[in-house]
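Good morning,

Attaching, inline, the backbone tokens for the sequence recovery test we're adding to the shared suite. The designed sequence is right after.
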């Protein structure tokens, strides 16, 4: 399938998820992450979910990271440049939704992309080859292309992999893993 078709399909699949479905499946995803070989790293980037889009609730991932004393980074999007800046998440960090309902830090300690070792990536869909479909604005592809090649990219999804995304572009950045409530995919 093509990305546009997949966006439509998975947005409608998400639309029928209840709050309880989202909480239970998000917890199952977080529990699966524990077995991945990523915990020797220090700097972890986590997206804060857009509740209105019924994204995976990353609160459970944040608890795991905090419990393991990891440095947690969250992003702020610049819609003029289509780039993201990354900030250390601390007890003092103030979060506010932007015009697109994306929770973002108001300010804080900015951390360069070169420090990031693991990125949890939001997505709508992905395939068995590690390709992902996002919302189509390219923020994460730009961000991931700025990361070091060894940065571990982990998608999280309520749904299982599609067989094949037919219109993958050269600039699309592949995932290393994708975790659903039932499966860990390794690419």
């Amino acid at each position: 399938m093509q990305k546009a078709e997949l966006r439509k399909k998975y947005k409608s699949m998400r639309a029928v998820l209840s709050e309880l479905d989202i909480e239970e499946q998000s917890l199952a995803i977080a529990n699966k992450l524990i077995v991945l070989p990523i915990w020797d790293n220090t700097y972890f980037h986590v997206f804060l979910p857009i509740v209105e889009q019924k994204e995976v609730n990353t609160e459970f991932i944040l608890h795991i990271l905090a419990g393991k004393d990891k440095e947690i980074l969250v992003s702020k999007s610049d819609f003029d440049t289509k780039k993201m800046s990354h900030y250390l998440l601390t007890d003092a960090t103030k979060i506010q939704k932007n015009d697109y309902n994306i929770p973002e830090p108001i300010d804080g300690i900015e951390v360069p992309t070169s420090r990031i070792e693991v990125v949890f990536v939001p997505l709508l869909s992905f395939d068995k080859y590690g390709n992902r479909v996002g919302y189509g604005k390219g923020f994460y592809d730009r961000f991931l292309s700025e990361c070091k090649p060894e940065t571990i990219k982990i998608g999280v999804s309520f749904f299982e992999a599609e067989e094949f995304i037919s219109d993958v572009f050269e600039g699309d950045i592949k995932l290393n893993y994708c975790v659903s409530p039932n499966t860990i995919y390794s690419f």
